[in-house]
Amino acid sequence: MTAPVRLTDRKRLAILEAAIAEFRQHGFEATSMDKIAATALVSKRTVYNHFASKDELFAAILMELWDSSAAQGDLNYQSERTVRAQLSDYLQRKMRLLCDPNFIDLARVAVAATIHNPERAREMVARLSQREEGIAAWMKAAQADGKLKPGDPVLLSDLLQGQLKAVAFWPQVAMGQPLLNLQQQQKVLELTLEMFLLLNER
C-alpha cells in the first residue's frame, strides 16, 4: 500500500494500525476509542471524525484487510479464458486472505465480539458478504456462456468458498489450529477446484 500523502490520510492509517494492535492484544470489548487514539497519537475527536463508532472502525479494518489481499481482484468473467484458470486465480487470492495472520487474528476478535451481539454479527456478515458477491456474478456469467451447469450462482459461490473456509479458516479461528503451510494450501486449492468442476463444469 502506498503511503498516504495527505495529513488526514496519514492519520486515518495511524488509527487503523493502532486499532489493529489494540484489538489483537485486548479484544473488542476491552479496547476503547480513547486507547486507540492514544496509541495512534491523535485526539479522540480525530478518531471519531474518521469513524463514527468502534463497530464501524472494526468493520473498516476487516474491509481494509480484505481489499489489500486482493481476495476479489477484478473478478470479471473472461470468455476467452478457461473456467478452470479463472477459478484457480480466484481461489488462490481467497486463500491468501484466509492465510493472512492479521485477518485470522481479527476474525477471532470478530467472532468473540459478535457471539453475544446478534445485531453486530448480522452487520459484519452483511459487510463481508458484499465483498463476496463478485464470484456469484462471475458464475452467473459463466452459466450464461454455457461453461457451467445451471444452478443458483449465490448458493454455488457459498459452497465453493465454504470448502476453503472449512479447512483454512474455521479451524484456525475457532480452534486455534495453525495456518496452512504452502503445501497444504496448494492441496486444498486443487481438491476444491477439482470437486467444484467435477459437479458443475459442462
In short:
The protein is mostly helical and 202 residues long. The chain is built from 11 helices and no strands.
3D structure, described in words:
This protein is 73% helix and 0% strand. The termini are far apart. The protein is built from eleven helices and no strands. It is mainly α and 202 residues long. It folds into two domains: 7-52, Orthogonal Bundle (Arc Repressor Mutant, subunit A), CATH 1.10.10.60; 68-200, Tetracycline Repressor, domain 2. The model has no long low-confidence stretch (mean pLDDT 86). α2 (33-40) crosses α3 (44-50). It is elongated and about 60 Å long. Residues 32-51 bind DNA. Residues 9-69 form the HTH tetR-type domain. This is TetR/AcrR family transcriptional regulator. InterPro entries: DNA-bd_HTH_TetR-type_CS, Homeodomain-like_sf, HTH-type_TetR-like_transc_reg, HTH_TetR, Tet_transcr_reg_TetR-rel_C_sf, TetR_C_Proteobacteria. Keywords: DNA-binding, Repressor, Transcription, Transcription regulation.
Distance N to C terminus: 40 Å
Topology order in helix (H) and strand (E) letters: HHHHHHHHHHH
Name the CATH homologous superfamily of the largest domain.
Tetracycline Repressor, domain 2
Q: What kind of sheet is the major sheet?
A: none
Q: What name does CATH use for the topology of the largest domain?
A: Tetracycline Repressor, domain 2
- At the first level of CATH, what is the class of the largest domain? Mainly Alpha
| Assigned CATH architecture of the largest domain | Orthogonal Bundle
Our estimate of the beta-strand percent is under 5%
Helix count, per DSSP?
11
**pLDDT under 50 segments (min length 5)?**
none
The overall pLDDT average reads 86
What structural category do the secondary elements indicate?
mainly alpha
**Whole-number total of structural domains:** 2
Provide the gyration radius in Å.
19 Å
Provide the helix percentage. over 70%
Shape, per Cα inertia axes: elongated
User: Based on DSSP secondary structure assignment, what is the total number of beta strands?
Assistant: 0
